[in-house]
Automatic annotation (TrEMBL):
Superkingdom in the source lineage: Bacteria
PROSITE patterns for this protein: HTH_ASNC_1 (PS00519), HTH_ASNC_2 (PS50956)
The protein, known as: Transcriptional regulator, AsnC family
CDD domains for this protein: HTH_ARSR
InterPro entries: ArsR-like_HTH (IPR011991), AsnC-type_HTH_dom (IPR000485), Dimeric_a/b-barrel (IPR011008), Tscrpt_reg_AsnC-like (IPR019888), Tscrpt_reg_AsnC/Lrp_C (IPR019887), Tscrpt_reg_HTH_AsnC-type_CS (IPR019885), WH-like_DNA-bd_sf (IPR036388), WH_DNA-bd_sf (IPR036390)
Lineage: Bacteria, Pseudomonadati, Pseudomonadota, Alphaproteobacteria, Rhodobacterales
Alphabetical UniProt keywords: DNA-binding, Transcription, Transcription regulation
Organism of provenance: Shimia sagamensis
């Protein structure tokens, strides 16, 4: 299925206001409520809309520190990559894990209370990940820009 301009408008609105009512969404994208509901349902069914979530404030949850961790593995064999990916996916403090092309094999996005908490996460979890040859951590000083909205 290809997206037309109306689908793109629906997706743009929903990315920023996931709890908008169907009536308000229909009005914003200039559709009848029933046509809007059908389109949203189709976008969900076809996998363009994966899920609806609540974005939480890390400061309110006492995890304001973001750390980006570059991981280099000891090898590139499938079993090494699979073991690493399975283990890292079980660490609750890791929000994202990306397989990279470049100097690092993986980049992790980790949240922590502070540097002491990150030291605990490193000691209890990251240092025990299988296949890791080298690890380098960089602390974010401030988030300048952040969005979850994809360009549509």
């Amino acid at each position: 299925m290809s997206l037309d301009q109306t689908d793109r408008r629906i997706l743009t609105v929903l990315q920023k206001q996931g709890r908008i009512s169907n009536a308000e969404l229909a009005e914003r994208v200039n559709l009848s409520q029933s046509a809007c509901h059908r389109r949203v349902h189709r976008l969900e069914k076809d996998g363009y809309i994966k899920d609806y979530v609540a974005l939480l404030d890390p400061r309110k949850l006492n995890v304001p520190t973001t750390v980006f961790v570059e991981i280099t593995l000891s090898g590139q064999a499938d079993e090494v990559l699979d073991a690493f990916e399975k283990a890292v996916s079980r660490i609750p403090d890791v929000l994202e894990c990306h397989l990279m092309a470049g100097t690092a094999d993986y980049i992790l996005k980790v949240v922590a209370e502070n540097t002491d908490d990150f030291a605990r996460i490193h000691r209890q979890h990251l240092a025990r990940l299988p296949g890791v040859a080298q690890m380098q951590s960089s602390f974010a000083l401030r988030t300048v820009f952040k969005t979850t909205a994809l360009p549509v």
